[in-house]
Amino acid sequence: MLALPSSIIDPLWCQFAALIPPVTDTHPLRCHRPRIPDRIIFDKLIQVLVLGASYAKIADTTCSATTLRTRRDEWITAGIFEQLEQICLEFYDRIVGLDL
Questions:
Q1: What is the DSSP letter of 61?
Q2: Pairwise CA distance, residues 33 & 16, whole Å
Q3: Helices then strands (H, E): number in the chain?
Q4: What percent of the chain has pLDDT over 70?
Q5: Tens digits of per-residue pLDDT, 78-99?
Q6: Alpha-carbon distance 12 to 33, whole Å?
Q7: Angstrom distance (rounded) from CA 64 to CA 55
Q8: What Å distances lie between residue 10 and 4, 7, 16, 43, 52, CA to CA?
Q9: Which of 9, 24, 42, 100 has its CA 20 to 30 A from that of 34?
Q10: Could you give the 3-state DSSP secondary structure of residue 29?
Q11: Who's near 5: CB < 8 A, 6+ residues apart?
Q12: What is the pTM (predicted TM-score) of this model?
């Protein structure tokens, strides 16, 4: 289920994907399950934000609620959301204008 139209979500994803740091696999045997793609996690987090649903309600066979929370925490620690907030404020100021 789409929470936002692709005309909004795709440019947002492009901005967001550019901020995600590369992930290195540190498992010595490299035998664990493959990492869920960032785009799937991003789409699910947008659903959580837009629909106001819980992680458990949004989780399905593509990823679990635990994976959603873990990746969200990784991205928070990396400072991605703060950078994205600044980008959004700059674009809003350019388009509408901010009176701070």
A1: S
A2: 24
A3: 5, 0
A4: 96
A5: 999 898 888 878 878 888 877 7
A6: 28
A7: 8
A8: 10, 6, 10, 10, 21
A9: 9
A10: coil
A11: none
A12: 0.81
Residue in the block written with tokens 């100021």: 93
88 closest CA partner among 99, 96, 76: 96
User: Is the CB of residue 46 less than 8 Å from the CB of residue 4?
Assistant: yes
Following CA atoms 50, 74, 35, 52 in sequence, which dihedral angle do they give, to the nearest 10 degrees?
-20
Could you tell me which of 36, 96, 98, 97 has the C-alpha nearest to residue 67?
Answer: 36
Rounded Cα gap, residues 62 and 36, in angstroms: 8
